[in-house]
Amino acid sequence: MANSIGKSLICALGALFLLSSTLASSDAPFIVAHKKATLNRLKSGAERISVSIDIYNQGFSTAYDVSLTDDSWSKDVFNTVTGNTSKSWERLDAGSVVSHSFELESREKTLFYGAPAVITYRVPTKASLQEAYTTPILPLDILADRPPEKKFEWRLLAKYGSLISVISIVVLFIYLVATPSKSGAAKGSKKKR
User: Fold this and answer.
1) For residues 55 and 76, what is the distance between their CA atoms, to the nearest angstrom?
2) pTM for the structure as a whole
């Protein structure tokens, strides 16, 4: 009996040790980053790329000296219009979000495969810098020949709109005259008694 109590006590202490070590290791910043890029064709024959990067700290402690570097944009193909491809923050508290955006312009027709941006941060309990990566972006088909988008034809609405409204009013009137009303059906059943 004393032997089984000793074994169960050792198992309980072992489980408590594993649980405490798991909780202690989870008390660190956990960086999740999302990178997205959108294309906008300009009339001047260039294409503008708007890049937005959101950095989330999903951990339970603060990340310090957070820096974002996005060097995947080649200087031969892209010109920076607004913003920078890198940014730094002093700290990123637990559960908080920071965003960074910049715009680039390209006059070259190409299919561009962008790499994830790199985020480095410092954890107070570790000496070395930690790294995280953003999500990759889908390939960007810059200055591609796109078929024209079909837009709603306002001319057709102006030309046939009045005809459609008259026809729908006539059909509605015929429907109301042809279908018996519920109150008339109830009166008819009373007269039959």
Assistant:
1) 28
2) 0.63
